Amino acid sequence: MKVKLIRAAVIAAFLPAFVAGCSPSTASPTAKAPADAVVAQASAGAGFRAPDFSELAEQAGPAVVNISVTKPVSAAAGELLPFDENDPLFGFFRHFRLPVPKQAPMRGVGSGFIVSPDGYVLTNAHVVDGAREVDVKLTDHREFTAKVVGTDRNSDIALLKIEAKDLPVVRIGHSQDIKVGQWVVAMGSPFGFENSVTAGIISAKSRSLPGEGYVPFIQTDVAVNPGNSGGPLFDLNGNVIGINSQIYSQTGGYMGLSFAIPIDVAMHVKDQLQKYGKVTRGRIGVAIQPVNQSLAQSFGLPKPEGALVSSVDDEGPAARAGIKAGDVILAWNGKAVDESATLPALVADTAPGQIAQVRVWRDGKERTVSVTVGSMPNEKVASSENPAANSGKLGLVVRPLTAQERSQLHASAGLVVEDAGGAAAAAGVQPGDVILALNNLPVRSVEQLRRLLDQAGKHVALLVQRDAARMYVPVDLG
Question: Can 268 be counted among the known catalytic residues?
Fold first, then answer.
């Protein structure tokens, strides 16, 4: 049976349940550390004794929350039209379908943890993605409607805010200090069973997972199941060192492999979301691959290490700095790149415009290249308002047209849709569409689109180009 990577959030439509896709900070002085007694001590007479996690669970548990979300589900356009999806009439009539499909609520369950006494909560982006309403429940049974401050799909981190004071908080640790083999504890709501505690060890560090290039995951054997998504991973001192996110599974349930986002990555994203409502990442425009023993010998490297540049964007920062295909990147701003999976996170965490010193291996010797870091183009049109009002946003991931694309489309401006959800997707907007105008006002940048949306009413008309055809798509913003 094929093994699948599953994000550990659980989604339920009425009663049946199924699995859905599944910078360092100082702790608040109000947080308490579990006693050293948590760590097991071995004695010559008694031999090894397993750790006792009860004190950790008692002291850290109140800051771990249950998150429930409500998501709208529309009937598919194909169920309302008498045409096959390959029929040319399908794409035309889908925008004018009648009757309007009824919304069937979908409910999901995830986990999170409180990082500040005034109500900031961290969880996974996939837990709240597309949610119309987000509710946070504390261990003392208080419940709050949360506001989504911001989400970052690339790292799968979301920051929520609830209106409360003097809340219990977790202690934030440092994921770079962890060691393979050390005990760790997960807390969350697997399958909706709130405040569950499981334990295990760290199996590996800096794991690279398919489609998750910006996160060096922590691999553990802690039992993590659907509903654990967004919950904290603790060390035995009660410090959060990661956020439980994904599992490998043949069945949809835990099979011994679970993955957590390092807390250093999560807190860096959290700080940007809290300050700016979005995350800005560095980019240099290269494709890389691992260096194995054969490649190391071919390039004359003393040992297999670094990130081999397989291709370079001709118009990217790396090309302008002189980096070439065949170079092996060994270090980034003084930090060693022991394996290729390390590099994307280092580049992404570098502010656009900063000059990075890159140590590369070329023609049998090392050299240092200065690269002016560019900016990751993808931005999500998102709201920092109450999730109940998120239907007033398009729910699109867009980027500006390149010069070549503008020439091909004979358009002076526009935004390419890279991912579609929410109101725009329900209206028929698809990845690959180009948004040319909103209410007949040309769209030239992501920020301009945001401003136009803020000024718009409950209905907008998007001028969209799809292939060679242009059409107006009416979007109901709620």
Answer: no
pLDDT tens track for 331-361: 999 999 988 888 988 898 898 899 999 999 9
Catalytic, 126? Answer yes
Residues in the chain: 478
- Residue ranges of domains in the chain, CATH in brackets: 1-42+54-278 (2.40.10.120), 282-375 (2.30.42.10), 379-476 (2.30.42.10)
Sign, CA dihedral 210-215-220-225, equals: negative
Instruction: Quote the tokens at residue 468.
Output: 């060679």
Per the structure block, which two tokens stand in for 162? 């609830």
Active site residue 23: no
Contact (CB, 8 A) for 207 and 218:
yes
Report DSSP letters for 389-447, one per residue: GGGGS--EEEEEPPHHHHHHHT-S--EEEEEE-HHHHHHT--TT-EEEEETTEEP-SHH
pTM (global) more than 0.90: no
pLDDT of 82 higher than 80: no
Q: Catalytic one among 111, 129, 152, 156?
A: 156
Q: Give CA–CA dist 27/175, Å, rounded.
A: 14
The pair of three-digit structure tokens given for residue 292, joined into one six-digit string: 């194995």
